[in-house]
Each structure stands twice: as C-alpha cells, then as structure tokens.
Here is the input.
Amino acid sequence: MKDRKVLVVGGGGRCHAIVDALSRSPRVAKIYCAPGNAGIGAQAENVPLKDTDVKGLLDFALKEGIDLTVVGPEASLAAGIADAFRAAGLKIFGHTKAATRLESSKEFAKEIMVKYGIPTSAYRSFDDFGEALAFVNSRPFPAVLKYDGLAAGKGVVIAADAQEAEAALRSMLLDETFGAGRVVVEDYLTGPEFSFMAFVDGDRVYPMPLAQDHKRAFDGDKGPNTGGMGAYTGLPFITAADREFALKNILEATAKAMCTEGCPLSGVLYGGLMKTPDGIKVIEFNARFGDPETEVVLPLLQSDIYDIFEAVASGRPTSMPVWRDAVTLGVVLASKGYPGSYPKGAEILGTEEVDAKVYHMGTKLEAGHLLTAGGRVMMVVAEGADIREAREKVYAELGKISCDALFYRHDIAHVALEGRILDGKALSDSIKEGLKDKVAALEAEYGRKPSLAVIMVGDNPASQVYVRNKVRSATYIGMDSRLIKMPEETSEQALLETIAGMNADPTLDGILVQLPLPRHIDESKVIDAIAKEKDVDGFHVLNVGELWIGRHCIVPCTPKGILRLIDESGIDLCGKTAVVVGRSNIVGKPVAKLLLDRNATVIIAHSRTADLKSVTLQADVLVVAVGREKVVTGDMVKPGAVVIDVGMNRNAEGKLCGDVDFIAARQRASWITPVPGGVGPMTIAMLMENTLECFLDSMKR
Ligand code: NDP
Here is the structure.
C-alpha cells in the first residue's frame, strides 16, 4: 500500500538520487528531505533543517510520524543521528556512530583491515610530527599521508618528495588547519580505482553495480581534486572474478568483522578500491552512499528501494536487489572557479528540456528562476546499452542546458573508452628472450653462432641510433654481430665491393645496409647487390617479388612486426577491412600483401587519395606509414579499430612523433600502438628472427 512517509537527510546530488529512487516506490506516499535543494523540491517536500541538527530532525520525524529515515551525508552519521533515532524507537537507514568509525577514523579502518586480513596497503599512524617525518623519509616516495578524522575528502596528500611530505605533515599535525589529530602513512599503490557500494545489514551484504568517478576538475585528469566531476557504471577493466573477489574478501569480510567487533553495519558500505598489480585492495571505506557514484548507480535499481532501506533498518533479511542490464554515465556541471572560490546566483536555463536525469547538487529557486548555489551545481545522467551510447546521450542532453557560469568535463569514462596499448617494446623483449635460448641451442647444434653485419654509410644521427640498437640486440641474444661504418664520401663502387665480399663470406648470415644512403649512391642498386638469401631486411627485389607470389622468402621486418602487433590485439583478420595509408615498397605494400594473405579486404591509400577520412573510417585495422605528423586525426578512426602507427619522425620541435594523433585516436580505437615503443622495437625483433632464419637456411643448404 502506498502509505509510507520517508525522511531523507541531506541535500546534494546523492540525496536527489535517493529521493528519485524512493519516488519510484509503490509504497512511498510522501517524501521529506532536510534540507533538500531546488531539484529535490520537485519530488519531495524540503524541510529547512540542517543535516547535523539531530535533535531538530528527531523532533520533526516524531511529529510527522515518519516511517523511515534515510541518511545521506557522513556528518549526520558521525553526529550520532542513527543512535538518537533508534533510541527513540524510530527506523533509520544509517550506521551507528560506532560503526561510522569505518569512515570517520582512518586508523580504525586500517586496524580492522589488518586484524581481519582484508587486503589494503601497509600503514603506520602517528601523532608526533618528528616521528612521522622520520618514518616518511625512511621510505620510498611518493608517500600517502591521510589525516585521521573527517576531512570531507580533502585530508589525503600524495607527497612526491621530502619537501611536500614535510609541508603536508606540518599542516596536518602542527598547524590548526585540520584540528588536533593523527596521520596515517601508507604505501603508494597504483592501478585503476573504482567504487563498490553495498547495502549492509549486519553480515548481510547486498551489492550494487560498480562505478568509477573522476576526481580531477579538468579533462585528461588534470587540475585540482574535487568532490567528483562525473561517474559511470559498467567498468570494462573489472572482471567478474575481480568483482567476486572484492565482494567476498572485502565487503562481506568487513561486514562480518564489524559484527565481531560489536558494531554491526546498518546502511551503506562504500569500498573505495584499487585494482593493483597485486590484486584488489582497499584505499578507503566510507560509511554512506558515494557522491557522485550514487547518481549513476541508483537509476539502475529495478527493485523497490524502500523495501531494501526498510529491511536493513529493521534488521530483517530481504531478497537480492535487481539491477537493470544497462550502463549509466553522469557528468557534473560545476561553477567556474570550483573547487576554488566561485560566484553564486547565476541563472540556469534549459534543464526542463533535458531528456535524461538531472540531479541537483547546489541549486536554489528564487522567484521561479533556477540559480547556481554551490560548487558542484547539477549532474546529468543518461543510460545506454554501452558506455559509448550513454556518453553520447549525456553530452547531447547537456548541450540543452545554458549557463555561462558553469563548466564540465568532456571526457567522462575516458579510461573505459580508451584503446589498449599494443606494447611493441614488451612484445619485442619477450621475442628476443625466446631467440636468446634458440641461439644458444643452434650454436650447440651447428658449432657456430648466427651472424649479422650492419653497414652504415655517413653519420646521419637517426641512423646511428638505429644501427646501435640493432647491433646491441644482436649481441644481447648471443649472435655474432659487426658494425661496419663507412665515411659519407664512400663511393657506390666501394660499397658494392664490400657487400660482394660479405656475400662470399660463409660465416656471415645476414647483411643489412642502413637507409637512407648518401645521395650519390643508388639505394635500390645497393639493396639488390646483397645476396637474396642474406637480405635480412627483406628489401631485395627478388624477396619482394616472392612475397607477392606467395613463395617462401625473407619477409621485410617492419611489415612482419606490424602483423605480429595486430595479432597481439586478438583480432581475426579474415573478412575485416584493413586500410594501409602509405604505399612504399618497404612498408605499405608488403603490409598490404600480408593482410591480404590473412583474407582481409585491403585498401591502400596514399598522398593523393581524395577524402582520406572516408577511407580510414572503414578500417577495422588501420596501418599508417606516411612520415607526416598527425595525418590521421581522432575523427578519422572507426570506433573499435586496431590502429598501428608506423611513423617515426621528428616534428618541428625535434620531438619524436607518429603519423596518428595518439591521444584523440586512443579515445576511439580498441587497440593502438604508441610512438615510440610500438612498431620500432618490433622491427628490430623481426630483424633478429630473420637473421636466425637465414642462418638455418644456410645450414640446410
Ligand atoms: P615513404 O616516404 O617511402 O612513403 C610514405 C607514403 O606515405 C607514400 O606512399 C606517400 O604517398 C604517403 N603519404 C605521404 N604523405 C601523405 C599524406 N599527407 N597523406 C596520405 N599519404 C601520404 O616512407 P616509408 O614507407 O619508408 O616510411 C613511412 C613511415 O614509416 C616513416 O615515418 C618512417 O620513418 C616510418 N618507418 C618506421 C619504421 C619503424 O621501424 N618504426 C620502419 C620503416 C619506416 P605517395 O605514395 O603518393 O607518395
């Protein structure tokens, strides 16, 4: 029956989302919110009482005959609202003051985690400035320093060095900024952070969907920390096994631990977690709904939230909540200047046009006008089948709101949408490790090591780096290698004679001439002078020819490495469209042939291809080998494509750059190579492979 009266304590976006969820309940007749805000006022009756005015709130609840009170902010819980309501015989969803210590005392939380084996970083706590400083300086930086007390999310400092650590400890322990307290010093962990919330009643844990928020004020995770600029659900980097681990070993383990400690939970447990290389660990606990995570999580709830709140508040079991199989994404509109000082009172227009949820955070209504009244002003939340859809919808809807005094981030969920890195450096290192063992085995079998000669003519600085890397790699895997440096003025004839001598040397398996050659030497003549079976670069006209007719040959290193990187992404090339931008004989064309061999449909583009974007947008696999910075911009990449940037050029500032706008393209690609660190190292690993192949062929002859 729709006859229940509910009081929600709080007034931000989180409470608006709670009120919104309650308003969908078939049992709730009336919702009050203290103090509420302009947006909440449309769905509930705002009550002008402060969220920490425990006595005032209790009197109100008794007078109005409230059936259930739901607490949003931590300050109300820390003020003992749940204890006072329960003592008066009222039902309240929110932890006791003793249980709220999980959030209000970092040290208490750490003690619980250590005592019950809940995974978290190692820590020590101090109240003495000198001892804390000595401890921090005795360990590697960065150091994580947490003020032990409620600091509204501002009490954590990650100190990069001794100077920063000293300043932070001084303000936390000596100055009056925070008030008397303790400092917890922790190990610095790395990995993506995410929030895992659950409704908890003693040892009964009802998990909610995972969410990730964005703390920094500006795009690209730049700028100062804020209360949160946006959030989303449907985190692709957390597997089902990760979630299961966190549920069992963190949320359920903590709920049990709190029962054993005699302060059972009765409200929301919020795990601020991190997926570190050593597994999932707790960064912090909160004892209430997270903000802005609640705004993206609760819209997915299909079950009646009143039932859940009421069951937890009464200590009675209920069924697992049901969540819609969709994802949500929300973007916060904040006052320009936030998190610093900002003006208030600017008019916001267009919110009624928005076809998505609009949760108010800091707004007020004055004479029918909606005005800004806080740092974070409102959050627009849209739902979609996937993150891309939700994101497109949210930004389209946001465009309907106009207010010059507001700003927002344009890249919410970027981590989830960014392509993964095809790490050519790591792959080539592992290939070289394998070759090292092979070389040792070949030497034992044939009584001789494979050998490579690298010829460099002149002193082109880029070439010097490349030849050094090639010789170093050959030495590393245990091959014989020699570097033959010839002066710039070397004649074509002298170079050809040197090569002829090497062709005749039976102890030499591979010959490589570093390109480019000085102008007076004909490159193609030189390449074709290398014995076809010693042409480890695979550039000889006969090797290229045999590649095209599909006969066994030495496959050019860069194209071979590109295919290996594409395979690393896991894509099945058969039937896919591959676009190769660049048609040189040493990169573009052989790549195209290798892709054709895998039954991909291949399109080759080049400098005179009209409307390159319409071509590249068809590419499931895009290979760009052009030699011009940012020939491929982000909007030229088909969403989900595998992008291989072969380019290795120096731009006007002398910086090594690729052909693709990496940052923008990564937002659309599923996989992408970095420059440097992608194709370059793979070319060298393939050179080593080719040399071994030449050696084996010669041994068989
Ligand atoms: P080439 O100069 O021989 O070929 C470049 C190709 O790009 C040509 O087909 C050219 O078109 C095309 N092109 C040039 N400008 C544009 C443009 N604005 N739009 C579309 N297409 C364009 O170079 P390479 O094939 O030898 O090398 C390509 C790149 O790959 C270079 O940056 C090189 O440094 C790098 N590279 C990297 C290696 C590595 O190990 N990482 C190894 C080898 C190369 P057209 O045919 O019409 O002239």
Q: What stands out?
A: The chain has a mean pLDDT of 94. The chain has 23 helices and 34 strands. The pocket of NDP is lined by residues 558, 581-584, 586-588, 606-608, 612, 625-628, 631, 646-649, 679-680, 683 (CB under 6 Å). The CA atoms of residues 244 and 622 lie 37 Å apart.
